[in-house]
Amino acid sequence: AQRVTQPEKLLSVFKGAPVELKCNYSYSGSPELFWYVQYSRQRLQLLLRHISRESIKGFTADLNKGETSFHLKKPFAQEEDSAMYYCALFTGGGNKLTFGTGTQLKVEL
Amino acid sequence: DAGITQSPRHKVTETGTPVTLRCHQTENHRYMYWYRQDPGHGLRLIHYSYGVKDTDKGEVSDGYSVSRSKTEDFLLTLESATSSQTSVYFCAISGWGNLSSYNEQFFGPGTRLTVL
């Protein structure tokens, strides 16, 4: 069965420090992965998707099929990065996404 | 923001009462979804729709029903609300439409439901 695991509920870093939000997946097919971000009391919005290989707001994520991971990274955290981050796996059938439990990122001054 | 609205945005109700939440889209997307968001559980799919009058269950569908009579609207009904259904409910859309991007999901603003 498909599964997305985000092991950290809360990640606290200082401003200017590197950030890595972990995501591991389990899926028998060819994975398509996404990172969504939710700022305080706002709707979820797409941050990036592995297919596009973009860098959004300084964040990048590389799909590692060998380690079944899609970790989100940013070299220098900013205060405005504080938010909830969700990793999601596209599982086809009904165009569905399977979401992880989310990681709350807190960037401290 | 994408043309996805939810109503009401906040609701407080009592145990045992029926509740209907509405999701409305103006982007002409085929697929629509209802999720609930709870601390420690992330987003969990309740029900989804793959077309008008075509719906299916998600992972936490017990106690919920849905209906989709037209492309624009997807209704979520709690037949008899319980305290365990206190949550934030998000609607989402996907599929080819005005917003393009086949498998990306676009989210509504959420409805905060409290069942006393």
Provide an overview of this structure:
The complex is a heterodimer of chains A (109) and B (116). Chain A is an all-beta fold. Chain A has no helices and 11 strands. In chain A, strands 2, 5, 6, 9, 10 and 11 form a 6-stranded mixed sheet that branches. The mean pLDDT of chain A is 92. Chain B has 116 residues and is mainly β. In chain B, 0% of the residues lie in helices and 56% in strands. In chain B, the strands form 2 sheets. In chain B, strands 2, 4, 5, 6, 9, 10 and 11 form a 7-stranded mixed sheet that branches. In chain B, strands 1-3-8-7 form a 4-stranded antiparallel sheet, with no helix packed on it. The chains are: A mainly beta (109), B mainly beta (116). The interface between A and B is medium-sized, with 21 and 28 residues.
Features:
heterodimer, A: 109 residues, 6-stranded mixed sheet, 3-stranded antiparallel sheet, globular, B: 116 residues, 4-stranded antiparallel sheet, 0% helix
